[in-house]
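Q: What does the assembly look like in three dimensions?
Context provided by user:
Components: two
Sequences:
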Amino acid sequence: MNENRRSILEMLAAGKITADQAERLLAAIERSASGSRAESSESRVKPKPKYLRVVVQAADVYHGEGPTKVNVRVPMQLLRAGVKLTSLIPAQARDQVNQAMRQHGVNFDLGQLKPENLEELIDQLNDLTVDVDNKDAQVRVFCE
Amino acid sequence: MIPWLAIIQIRARQGRGIHLWIPLVFLWILLLPFALLALPVFLVYCLIGRVSVVRTARTFAEMLGALKGTRVQFENGVRCVSLRIA
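A: Here is the predicted structure of the complete assembly.
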């Protein structure tokens, strides 16, 4: 028996709440418990993204050959390895890059980019989809 | 594990398509002399930048290995060209 259920029954026994109130409280606990179970099983099933996909559909016709479509699939592993390269940038060069980014309004320290942060970022990418639509082209970036 | 195969596929709306399976071992053999030439530059970079040689080499190897599964595809109304690294 969990702690909440026990405390409800104790309040009922002490006469602090009526049987009807206790029943409603127990039902509410049951609902929240089943909801969290479903949520956790959903997150367990969700697979990690393996690829980053970029799909571009251009409306313009090149030499009368029809609309152009570009489809790129990049393994996430390549992104991980690429980010690891930032740790190989010499400190003085990294400082210059950070300074240049700050000048352009990007307050970001490349030195803070660590593999554990990257894993977290990639996990979050699963839900990310970027769609850019205009009259000339359609760009879609997503993970799969 | 570095990729060993590149698959190039050219499909045309009219006529026959081309399907090429290219063993990358030839490419690696071709690139080996350039890698040997680049080795001193790489070592100097590691020395000046105070970066670990082993870690840098391992990261480059990881990048090569991670190329597996990359796919690039261009398509227009007439033909479709795709490159897949396996």
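Follow-up: Helices of chain B lie at 25-49, 53-66.
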